[in-house]
Amino acid sequence: MSVLMNLFHVLVFPGLLFCVVMGVLLSGLDRIWVARMQRRVGPPLLQPLYDFLKCCGKETIIPRHARKAAFLAAPVVGFVALVSISLFLPVAGQEAVFSGSSDLVVILYLLTLVSVCMIVGAACSGAPFAGVGLSREMVAMISYELPFVLVILAVSSVTFTVTGNVPQSFSLQAIVDFQAANGALITRLSMIPAAIAMLLVIPCEVGNHPFDVAEAETEICEGTLSEYSGAPLAIFRLTHMVKMYIMAALFCVMFLGGITTGIVLLDIAIFVLFCIVLTFITSSLPHAVCARFKVEQVFKFYWTVVAGLAVISLILVWLGL
Amino acid sequence: MFEKMIDDSMSKSPWIFHINAGSCNGCDIELVSVLTPRYDAERLGFRLTGTPRQADIVVVSGPITVQTRDRLVRTLAQVPDPKCVVSLGSCPCSGNVFKGSYAIDGPLEKWTHVDVSVGGCTPKPEAIIAALAKATEILKEKRKEMRK
C-alpha cells in the first residue's frame, strides 16, 4: 500500500502529472495575459501543450560536432531534477513526500542542477551561438543565486529567532508549521523586503522575458537551445513551463504557507489561485512592461537592488521585527 | 491517440523562421507586421524563432542573390522534417524587377520545393496570414505522410 501511495505521490499529485498540468496552465495564462496587455487576442490556453506535442512529432537532428550522449541526456536529467523538487514542497497544506532538516538546501542544489543541465546540453551541442548562450546563462545564474540564498537565509532565520530552535532549521515543513502557528511570513514587517526580492528572483530563475538573456532569440539564435530540435527541445520547453510552477509554489510555501481550511480540495484550489496570481506578478507584468536587459545590467541589478533588499530583510530579522 | 494529438498540434503551433535572400526589406516588414497587435498571428500559434532547427515553416523573401544562395541552401537543410517553405513576395517567385541581373540566381524553385507562394510587391499582411494558414495544413499532411 505504501509503495502504491509513494507511486501516486511521485507520478500524480505533487509529482509529475500535477507539475505538468500546472506548468501548462500557468504558461498558457501567462501568454494570454501578455497578449491582452499588448491589445492582442493571444494564443489559446493550451498553446504550450500544442507546442510540446508538435516538438515531439518533429525530427530530432543531432549535429555532427555534438557529444551525442550528453546532448540527449541533459534535458531529461534537468527535467527529472526539476520534478523531484515538487516532492520536497509541502504544498496546499499537505505534508511533503520527502522532508528532512535541510529541504531548502536540497531545493537550491536541484534548481542549480536544472540550469547546469541546460549549460551542459548547450556546451555539448558544439555551436558558437550556444556557447554565447551558455556563458550568459552562467552570468544569470551567478546573478540570481546570491539574492536567492540570502532570501532563504532570512526565511530560515526568522523561524529560528522567534522559536529559538537550535540548530537553525532549513526544513520547509518547520517553516510551514511556524506559519500555521504565527501567521504567514509575508505579514511580518521583516519579511516584506525578502518577499519582494524573491518575486524579483523568480523571472530570472525561470528565464522569462526581461531576464531571458541566455535565450535571446533575436540576438543569438535562441542561445542555449540553438541546436536542439524534436523531442529534446520539447523536454526543454516542458522544463521551462514546470519551472514557472515550481518557483511559484516555492514562494507560496515560503511566504504564504500555513493557510489551511481542512478541506483538501479547497486547499488545492487556494494554492492554485496563489500560483496564478504570482505568475501574473512575476512573469506577465515584467514581460509586457520591460524590454530585455543586457547581461551586465542583469548582474548589476541582482547584486545591488535585489541582494540589497534581501540583506535589509536579514538585518530586520536580526533586530527582531 | 497520442499520434493523432501530435498530428493535430502540428497545425496549431507552427514556428516561423525567416530567411532574407537579398530582399529590399519591404516584405520583411510586412511579415513582422503579421505578428503585431493589429493582425496578431500568435492567436493561431505562430511564433518567430531565431534558429532553423526549431522551425516548421521557412519563409524566404528576396530574389535569390548569388551571395545568399549557398547560405540559403545550407539553412534549408538544417530544418528538421516535416517542414514547409513559403516564398514571400514576387522576388523569390520570378525575380521581379531584378530578373536578368547578373547578381541573381533565382527563382527559389530552382533550389528547393516551394509549398506556398505569395505574390505581390509587397504582399498584404492578410495574404501572408492566408498563406501561412495554408502552410500549416500542408504541414499536417506532411506529418501524416512521414508517419506512414
CATH class of chain B: Alpha Beta
Q: Please summarize the sheet with the most strands of chain B.
A: 5 strands, parallel
What is the average of the pLDDT values of chain A?
84
- Biggest interface: chains and residue counts? A-B, 37 and 28 residues
In DSSP terms (H or I, runs of 4 or more residues), the helix count of chain A works out at: 12
Uncertain segments of chain A: none
Classify the fold: give the CATH topology of chain B: Rossmann fold
Alpha-carbon distance between the termini of chain A? 46 Å
Radius of gyration of chain A: 19 Å
Based on CA inertia axes, which overall geometry of chain A fits? globular
Q: Name the CATH architecture of chain B.
A: 3-Layer(aba) Sandwich
Element order of chain B: H for helix, E for strand:
HEHEEHEHEH
| Poorly predicted ranges of chain B | none
What is the topology?
The complex is a heterodimer of chains A (321) and B (148).
Chain A: H1 2-11, H2 16-37, H3 47-56, H4 68-85, H5 103-125, H6 128-163, H7 172-182, H8 192-206, H9 217-220, H10 231-255, H11 264-289, H12 295-319
Helix pairs in contact in A: 2-10, 2-11, 3-10, 4-5, 4-10, 5-6, 6-8, 6-12, 8-10, 8-11, 8-12, 10-11
Chain B: H1 2-10, E1 15-20, H2 26-34, E2 47-48, E3 57-61, H3 66-77, E4 84-88, H4 90-94, E5 116-118, H5 125-147
Parallel strand pairs in B: 1-2, 1-3, 3-4, 4-5
In a nutshell, what does this entry contain?
With 321 residues, chain A is mainly alpha-helical. Helices cover 70% and strands 0% of the residues of chain A.
Q: What brief labels describe this structure?
A:
heterodimer; A: mainly alpha; 0% strand; B: 148 residues; Rossmann fold; 5-stranded parallel β-sheet; globular
Characterization of this structure:
- The complex is a heterodimer of chains A (321) and B (148).
- Chain A starts with a helix and ends with a helix.
- Chain A contains twelve helices and no strands.
- Chain A has one domain.
- Chain A is an all-alpha fold and 321 residues long.
- Chain B is an alpha/beta fold and 148 residues long.
- Chain B has one domain: Rossmann fold (3-Layer(aba) Sandwich).
- Helix content of chain B is 39%, strand content 14%.
- Chain B has a five-stranded parallel β-sheet, sandwiched between helices.
- The relative contact order of chain B is 0.21.
- The mean pLDDT of chain B is 87.
- The chains are: A mainly alpha (321), B alpha/beta (148).
- The A-B interface holds A 31, 35, 38-44, 47, 49-61, 129, 216-218, 220-222, 225-230, 233 and B 5-10, 12-14, 37, 40, 42-45, 47-51, 53-54, 56, 78, 80-82, 143.
